[in-house]
Design brief:
- It is a single chain.
- With 414 residues, the chain is an alpha/beta fold.
- The protein starts with 7 loop residues before the first strand and ends with a helix.
- The strands form two sheets. A six-stranded parallel beta sheet has the order 7-6-5-8-9-10. Strands 2-3-1-4 form a four-stranded antiparallel beta sheet, with helices on both faces.
- Helix 4 crosses helix 6 and helix 7 runs parallel beside helix 8.
- It has three domains: 156 residues, Glutamyl-tRNA reductase, N-terminal domain (Beta Polymerase, domain 2), CATH 3.30.460.30; 139 residues, NAD(P)-binding Rossmann-like Domain (Rossmann fold, 3-Layer(aba) Sandwich), CATH 3.40.50; 78 residues, no CATH class.
Length: 414
């Protein structure tokens, strides 16, 4: 195996350069990825690792960079996928190494610091291992990338604070009430925002959630997936008195919750309203009522912007960690050819020493043999010291080490 750092290659598309409608054509299922892994030997690709998410489809390989491009083109054609090859971005060597570390740690994500990518990388790595597609070069890179992600999460605040209005709403609710487990919460709307809001509520300890939706089937399906209650939107007014919190997440152009509906209820208990809808679904006059709190999307945007700014401020710390770990990987990589060469050199000379000593055992007494043994081993250490030191030295560049290795292999059968 040729251990050239520049043979660590990347080809891929991501949200940064490719629009979603184009990016979709590059997307690969797990089965398609397995198919590609099983074809890599046709192009003499030593190792291959593939990531395909909604934000990116990326190929990392240990091989000649020209071969990787040809291989990727070949596999997409075999899968009958029509792609625009001009969308591909390429990297190799240290740029490729750092890119994977940034992807794994969330630095390169659409939402800076999001941690969902970590589980996606772990799953992709598992698939590659199951198909024997990643060896020591890429496996080590992936492992160190996951370590970088873990360190960045623990040592920086890159993932702190919410960057979605739905999650920010739940955080604000939690800050107001402390615990959510005793609250009766109505989530009005079963679309994407309703789904993410319900997920965040449950994750933060909410126990009593009711999904409210105009489309009964859609509402019931969401309620079933989260094991919550459901009521149709047309019956909502009948259950107003049961709720402590109302969260609206619909596309409706009308007010679903009006001040007049709560005149009697508000006198008996405190109510909390969160309007995540555009246009608004909650009567703004509700905030004028005693015992009522109204939070709108504008209130939450300030939290999101503040958290986004705070996350960006953590990027220098996160990039510094990646710099450290990428150097660690580079140092490890440079030893790949060095270590086998050192071991082979030592074994070659130690075998000579052992064989020659065996020939002398019948000619000399034990004390003399022991003395010769000690002397010959000491002599071997001195003979091997200079070449081994040169191979291990950080001062020697990769090119110099490769020349030393080639010279030693041409002289000795190692």
């Amino acid at each position: 195996m040729k251990n050239y750092y520049s043979n660590i290659n990347y080809i891929g598309v991501s949200y940064k350069h490719t629009k979603v409608d184009i990016r979709e054509s590059f997307s690969l299922s797990d089965k398609e990825i397995e198919y590609i892994y099983n074809k890599r030997h046709l192009f003499n690709i030593d190792e291959l690792f593939i990531i395909s998410t909604c934000a990116r489809t990326e190929f990392y390989a240990f091989c000649d960079p020209n071969i990787l491009f040809e291989f990727v083109d070949y596999t997409y054609k075999k899968l009958n996928k029509n792609i625009d090859k001009s969308e591909f971005r390429k990297m190799n060597g240290n740029a490729c190494v750092k890119h994977l570390m940034k992807v794994t740690s969330g630095i390169d994500s659409f939402v800076i610091g999001e941690t969902q990518i970590t589980s996606q990388i772990k799953n992709a790595f598992k698939i590659s291992l199951n198909n024997s597609s990643t060896g020591q070069v890429l496996s080590k890179l992936i492992q160190l990338s996951l370590e970088a992600g873990k360190r960045i999460k623990n040592e920086t605040k890159l993932s702190d604070g919410s960057l979605s209005t739905s999650y920010a709403a739940v955080v604000k609710l939690k800050n107001s009430f402390g615990k959510l487990d005793k609250l009766n919460i109505f989530v009005i709307g079963a679309g994407v925002t309703g789904k993410t809001t319900t997920y965040s509520l449950i994750k933060n300890g909410a126990k009593n959630i009711t999904i409210v939706n105009r489309d009964i089937k859609r509402g019931k399906d969401l309620a079933k997936s989260f094991k919550t209650q459901f009521i149709p939107l047309k019956n909502l007014s009948e259950s107003f008195h049961k709720a402590d919190v109302f969260i609206t997440c619909t596309n409706s152009k009308e007010l679903l919750l009006k001040q007049k509906d709560f005149n009697k209820i508000i006198q008996k208990k405190q109510l909390y309203f969160i309007d995540l809808s555009v246009p608004r679904n909650i009567d703004p006059n509700i905030k004028e009522m005693n015992n009522a709190t109204l939070v709108t999307i504008d209130n939450l945007e300030n939290i999101v912007i503040k958290n986004k700014t705070a996350r960006k401020a953590e990027l220098p710390k996160a990039n510094h960690i990646i710099d450290i770990i990428s150097v660690e990987y580079s140092s490890w990589f440079k030893q790949l050819d060095v270590i086998p060469t050192i071991v082979g050199l030592k074994n070659f000379f130690e075998n000579i020493q052992t064989n020659e000593l065996t020939k002398l055992k019948n000619k000399y007494d034990n004390d003399t043999i022991n003395a010769i043994d000690i002397f010959s081993k000491s002599l071997l250490k001195k003979i091997l010291k200079n070449p081994i030191t040169s191979l291990k030295s950080e001062r020697s560049d990769e090119s110099s080490k490769l020349k030393i290795i080639e010279a030693l292999k041409s002289i000795y059968p190692i």
